[in-house]
Amino acid sequence: MSLSRTAALIWLCAAPAVAEPLTVEIVTARAETDVRVYSLTGEVRARDRLSAAFPLSGRIVEVMVDAGARVAKGAVLARMDSVQQEQALRAAEAGLSTAAADHRQAIEDLERQEALLTRGATTRASRDSTEDALSVAEGALAQARAELDRARTALDDTLLLAPEEATVTRRMVEVGQVVGAAQPVMELALGTRFDAVFDVPEVLMTVGATPALIGLNRIDRPGERFEGHIYEISPVVDPQTGTVAVTVAVDDPPAGLDYGEAVRGTAEVVGKARVVLPHNAMSATAEGPAIWTVDPATMAVALRQVRIERFETGRIILAEGIEEGTLVVARGAQLLYPGRIVQAAEVVQ
After folding, report:
1. Mean pLDDT of 158-173
2. What Cα–Cα distance (Å) separates residue 240 from each residue in 91, 198, 200, 236, 237?
3. Topology (CATH level 3) of domain 37-46+190-272
4. Which of 93, 201, 215, 70 is nearest to 152 (CA)?
5. What is the spatial distance between Cα 125 and Cα 260, in angstroms, rounded to a whole number?
6. How far is CA 161 from CA 54, 85, 89, 190, 194, in A?
7. What are phi and psi for residue 55, nearest 5 degrees?
8. What's the CATH code, domain 18-34+273-348?
9. What is the pTM of this model?
């Protein structure tokens, strides 16, 4: 074999083989409006609520209603032991009778003294003394009337009355229990307006703008949808649960909706457009998440660092790193290295 042929064979054996293009799935990065749907379970409550309480302390002897009862204005909700108040009322009535009699007697004494003074049968000092006694009797009569009014009010206060038509949502006392003045005895729902209260995790309060409408449905009737709007957001975070109380005003309550009923609230939060890729496009380097991109001119791949917004089932949402229209390797990304030539098995637009 000649030297030139030997050299040619050595060169052929040493020359690297040209790798065949690797068949992979290639997708085109598309930006989609970032829509996130959140659902939480809450409780229906009355918009206008009142804690009913006795204005004085005492022992409960009767409770007329229980939770869920509808009561009319002025209906008796509970009754307190009234023995002391009844005794005080009888004493006040007796005191008023005595004061009224003393007042009449003082008037008659003054009239008699004035008649005697006209005939010269008494002195001016005696007449003036009688007039002073009448003034004292008038004061005593006014005081007796005030004490009677106070005794009547105290007796009336042993009855807890509904301030207006309402629904009893909570009963907080039992017969025989001693309660203090202004201690809540019952919780009443006034009017017909409903709210739905949700305990929202603190992190969800930072995901975007407050949604205008909240979709609602009863737990036992998922197909019956109605709507509400956010009425109030608590300014504090519950230190035990890490949640924020969000109150949703029910705009169109369905028939039969009741206080304490469980409802599910659903909100859509719309953000700016984000690039969405299939989950199998995910790769990584020592610096963090990365995506294999394809140069459409040479079909060579390159690894590009990205920042992940969040993961969802079957896909990843990118915050930055890939522009819309970029060719990206999906299935088969684990077989790549920088500069590898690829060909598309399927192009997903």
Report:
1. 91
2. 54, 15, 13, 12, 9
3. Elongation Factor Tu (Ef-tu); domain 3 (2.40.30)
4. 93
5. 76
6. 9, 17, 20, 14, 23
7. -80, -5
8. 2.40.420.20
9. 0.59
Helices 83-119 and 124-156 cross at an angle (nearest 10°) of 160
Cα three-residue angle 302-304-306, rounded to 5 degrees: 160
Give CATH for domain 83-156: 1.10.287
Closest CA to 330 of 298, 304, 291: 291
**What are the counts of helices (DSSP H) followed by strands (DSSP E) for the chain?**
3, 20
pLDDT tens by residue, 60-84: 999 999 988 889 999 999 999 999 9
Residues pairing with 37 in the sheet: 268
Here the tokens at position 80 are 């307190």
Cβ neighbours for 171, distance < 8 A, ≥ 6 positions apart = 63, 65, 66, 67, 185, 186
Query: Do the beta carbons of residue 144 and residue 92 sit within 8 Å?
Result: yes
Q: Tokens for 290?
A: 């990365």
What's the pLDDT score for residue 137?
A: 92
> Which contiguous run of DSSP H or E holds residue 85?
helix 83-119
Q: Helices (DSSP H) in 120-194: which residue ranges?
A: 124-156
Identify which of 276, 318, 284 has the alpha carbon closest to the alpha carbon of residue 304.
Answer: 284
